[in-house]
Amino acid sequence: MLIRRDEHDIDKAFRQKLHDAQEAPPAHLWEGIRKQSGGRRRFAAIWFWLVLAVVSAAGVGGYHLLASEKQIAQTETLEPIKKENNEQSVKYRIDKKEALRAQEEGGQNQEEIAAALADASDVKQLASAVSTANKNTKSNKSSKRINGANAKTTTEMNAVLAESAKEQSHSNAPMLGITDDNERKNVESTALSEANNSMLEFDSSAVSGNKQDTEQVVNETLDIEVDSSSAALIEGDLYVIPNAPKHTPVSLGLYASIFQPNRKFQTTSDNNNGGNTTITNAPQTNTTFQKPSLKTGYAFGIGAAY
Amino acid sequence: MSFLSNTANPSALTDEKTLIQGCLKGYESYRYELYKRFSGKMFAVCKRYAGSREDAQDYLQEGFVKVFDKLNTFQFNGSLEGWIRRVVVHTCLNHLRSRKLYLDVPENAPIADANAPDALNEMSEKELMNLINKMPAGYRTVFNMYAIDGFDHAEIAETLGVNEGTSRSQLAKGRNWLKKAIEKNLIHDSHAYQA
User: Fold this and answer.
1) B68 to chain A: which residues are within 8 Å by CB?
2) DSSP string spanning A51-77?
3) What is the pLDDT tens value at each position of chain A, 306 positions in all?
4) Where do the H-state alpha helices sit in A4-122?
5) Number of C-alpha atoms within 13 angstroms, CB side, residue A167?
6) Per the CB < 8 Å rule, is A24 touching B40?
7) CA distance, residue B149 to nearest chain A CA (Å)
8) Which of A141, A191, A256, B191 could form a disulfide with A265 if both were Cys (CB 3.0 to 4.6 A apart)?
9) Does A31 touch chain B (CB under 8 A)?
10) Residue B123, φ and ψ in degrees, nearest 5
């Protein structure tokens, strides 16, 4: 306590007798202090736990959202690869089927061409007949598929057509009054050129038609083929995520281990694979990354809050 | 901690540091011991500022709740009693400030410096306390802060939101009031004695 040099007499008298004066307070005061002080502590504790619960719930909710966003991102990354796998698979099947059809319908074309050639009165008519036959073929959807999907078949058809034109020009030459060998060759060459032009026109049209057809078929088939694609994955195929971030396998693995504990899911990172990341032993169903249920999120939040 | 293993009975001999640590741990016995040790003095402080026993009880209760809440801020730089006294005095001043009682002064009171009456040294603690409780609140607050609790005028001015001149004049007027009150009290007592 400050004691001043020039302390006033009145101040000094009061300070000496009252500074350390004591008087017992009523007994009930302590009870009030104890309750009030404890009450504040309890209030503070309630606030602490309430805030902690809210923060935990927000954290779990945030994680939930983040996980679902990540799932979408992963699905988007994997989807083209799955689609590509399916497309390749479907294309292979289409090619195979259409090759068979091509063989059958190729035969029909040849018959049409042969019939047209028989009716033709000259080489020009022959070429026109070939073109007409081919144009008729163009309108045939299945033929478009054949020629667009299988270049090999088209080449064979070209060869067949060319051979037909040659044979027909030889056999029809006397009938048309062509005796000179050179003239006959010119006619043959013209017929071949016409036939080839006709086929080129047909091919480009067929390819554009085929693109749409193939897409449609692929899309239709994708819907059906997902399971077979996933089944292929169980057999040890690899998903390849082009330029995937390095943490992707870790986060996927962590995510899968928490929310998909019953599913086999192991990831490996291949540094020698041009920056690509491979994930092996994909989940055993086509539900690759399942969003954790809302129940799970709530249960986790309530648990954390508790 | 070993020194707090027996938390049931801290005694009057328990040192302040142990007492504080026990309080901070939340042991009620330690808090009660601290209350017992300082509540008498602090109740007297509250009475000096409040002017009534009832108000003093409220101030003391609120003051000790603050003491327990802020005990973790005590740095052991000074005495624990000094720190508790400051907390309690400021609690009292907060109440007075909210009620603007420290501005309650009589008009036209003399400012002339008063000499201490001879009888002052003969008066008991209780009599002086009664005198203080009868003072106008404005005088009482400044007199308590300056004369008994050791605040200077700058601190008083800052705490009460007045200028230092006001603090000085209030103090002088308070001393005058006390001198007159003591003289009047003596006259009254001597008449009573003679009767």
Assistant:
1) 33, 37
2) HHHHHHHHHHHHHHHHHHHHHHHHHHH
3) 555 656 778 888 888 888 888 889 998 999 888 888 866 666 777 888 899 999 999 888 888 887 777 666 666 666 666 666 666 666 666 767 777 777 776 666 666 666 655 654 455 555 565 566 555 555 454 445 545 545 554 556 566 666 766 666 666 555 555 566 777 677 667 766 765 665 555 445 444 444 455 445 444 433 333 333 333 333 333 444 444 444 444 455 555 555 544 444 444 444 444 444 444 444 443 334 444 566 666 676 666 666
4) 9-18, 28-119
5) 11
6) yes
7) 7
8) A256
9) no
10) -80, 145
Considering CB atoms only, which of B40, B65, B143 is closest to A36? B65
Closest residue in chain B to residue A42, using alpha carbons only: B26
H or E element in which residue A215 lies:
helix A181-234
A5, A18, A40: best mutation site toward chain B, by most B Cβ within 10 Å?
Answer: A18
Reading the block at residue A200, the tokens are: 């080129």
Distance from the Cα of B42 to chain A's closest Cα (Å) equals 7
**Cβ contacts (< 8 Å) between A41 and chain B: which residues?**
26
Contacts of residue A15 in chain B, CB cutoff 8 Å? 147-148
For A162, other C-beta atoms within 10 Å of its C-beta total 16
Strand arrangement of the beta sheet that strand A239-241 belongs to = A239-241, A277-280, A266-267
CB contact under 8 A, B125 and A17: yes
Of A149, A165, A26, residue with least CA distance to A91? A149
B41-77 tens-digit pLDDT: 999 999 999 988 999 999 999 999 999 999 989 988 8
For B79, the closest chain A residue by CA position comes to A1
Contact A32 B61 (CB under 8 A): yes
SS3 at position B171: helix
Question: Identity (one letter) of the amino acid at A196?
Answer: N
Instruction: Give the C-alpha separation, B144 to B128, whole Å.
Output: 12
Q: What share of chain A has pLDDT > 90, as a percent?
A: 3
Mark yes or no for CB contact B40/A33 under 8 Å. Answer: no
Distance between CA atoms of A109 and A88, rounded to whole angstroms?
29
Q: Which of residues 39-68 of A touch B (CB under 8 A)?
A: 40-41
3-state secondary structure of A239: strand
**Dist CA A276 CA A281 (whole Å):** 17
List, for chain B, all residue ranges whose pLDDT scores fall below the cut of 50. Answer: 1-3, 5-6, 190-195
